[in-house]
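Tokens as discussed.
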């Protein structure tokens, strides 16, 4: 979960810097790509997560 939050923070920072500084629009694009990759990673991890935790009898 901490990796997910860290990557969201990195994407936000890259987006803000890219938006604020003229000529650094490519940072906004990189931030968007990092955010999308992070969301895909989180979706895959949460989808698999239900089968790992079995109750031992």
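Sequence:
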């Amino acid at each position: 979960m901490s990796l997910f939050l860290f990557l969201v923070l990195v994407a936000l920072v890259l987006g803000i810097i890219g938006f604020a500084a003229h000529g650094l629009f490519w940072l906004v694009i990189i931030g968007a790509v990092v955010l999308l990759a992070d969301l895909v990673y989180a979706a895959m991890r949460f989808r698999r997560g239900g089968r790992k935790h079995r109750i031992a009898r």
